Amino acid sequence: MTGEINIFRLFFLSVMGYLSISATAELKKYQFDIQVKNVSRLCHAKPIVTVNGMFPGPTVYVREGDRVLINVTNYAQYNMSIHWHGLKQYRNGWADGPAYVTQCPIQTGQSYTYDFNVTGQRGTLWWHAHISWLRATVHGAIVIMPKQGTSYPFPQPDFEFNLLLGEWWNDDVEEVVKQGNKLGLPPKTSDAHTINGKPGPLFLCSEKHTYAIEVEQGKTYLLRIINAALNDELFFAINGHKLTVVEVDAVYTKPFSTNAILIAPGQTTNVLVRADQVPDRYFMAARPFMDAPISVDNKTATAILQYKGIPNTIVPKLPQLPSLNDTNFALNYNSKLRSLNSPQFPAKVPLKVDRHLFYTIGLGANPCPTCQNGTRLTASLNNITFLMPQIGLLQAHYYNLKGVFTMDFPDHPPTPFNYTGAPLTANLGTTVSNLPRLSKIAFNSTVELVLQDTNLLSVESHPFHLHGYNFFVVGSGIGNFDPNKDPAKYNLVDPPERNTVGVPTGGWTAIRFRADNPGVWFIHCHLELHTGWGLKTAFVVENGPSPDYSILPPPKDLPPC
Ligand code: C2O
Question: Which atom of ligand 1 is nearest to the CA of 500?
């Protein structure tokens, strides 16, 4: 979608908003047709799975308080489900979307209507396919406008643009992942990074494939930036222009100014940019952050910020991005993120913790006689590699079906060890259980989860995403978490509130949330590579004291398995 269309649609929506006399929520309806379309990038064309033939897919524009119906019809050869990443889906896991967790996928030729309310949230989120690697091309933005009569807690921007950062493979991604699994190795890294589906002019045959926005001197722009990449954390910057961060994961932050942002797969970041430089053409650029010895696609995607009246013939300059392994930039950037915590948007951080969880993140290698090295790479939480079930976990929980999962996921790793010490090539007895093991959480209890990276095979940064909730990132550090010393350093006043957080390479992150949303909620690394290897589990949050605090009945058209 071009910037012009974005401007037009937003303008249209805001005019409609001001003219409308009714302050009540609206019903917004969308039709998503999953279709295969031939798309050309980097000198060749290939069929990709899309929504409505668009790449990236259509933006879902809603207003806080709206009810949204999105009918998804699957015309592709792959079974499909769509996740509305960051929407809390209160009591309504049926609309959450992760395949085999809250629903069975929509089979070829079938439809399912995602029916949900947008309550108590405003800002930028996104939607994506939640099965295998299909989200590489099946994704789009969700823009939640504040309630009518409510403004942003920052100066009103003149215009807004969505920037979806992605990864492009010249091959069919489903073949790429199959190949990796067969060899037991990471599949080939992506061939390009993209901004709104386009790699920009640093790539061959990409003249036509450059995204550009036009700005006017003196005006202020809100950029809604989404990292839709499968496996890469990214830096993003605009040559010559400061970025003011005002929101992450659809929660307002204390504004701060920076030359570059860091954004992990799954995360969103809203920044204000003032067109206050000499009228010219400037590159916007995105490139990975990787401070572990892991190979990554280090190519730079670019798009153009062009002042009105400047001819297309002028060659823009690249911004200075932090280097690939700039750990200090990453730590420093993350430490600047603070919730706005204003009277209108308070940070309701749980101060008392009912349940303490400590999960270790491990990469490992299991024996595999048919694989290239005789081993297959795998990943685990508390030494457990999660296997996907054949039917939806939420249905199994709701209907009390036996033999689908167990509720004995351990609160701690089986044996403590020096998590981030010398590399441990041994596997420490990682188990693949036959049934998925989940963790039962009491309704409305407060939970603290410490995610600890380990040096099994290699340390690495892992963006963890929790479905059904936002959480507060109360603390984070390098090395092993120290339960005696580290909690004293927590920020319990204005920590960032988000749905996806990067656990630093060889470090830990502590998050807190109140389990007030009953259902089965997936928690996983948002690097698709690691999710596929088993770096995931789910919380079963029990029903509350009455039907008003319990899981809603399933919709009639919930896809069968
Ligand atoms: Cu954005 Cu479980 O995913």
Answer: 1
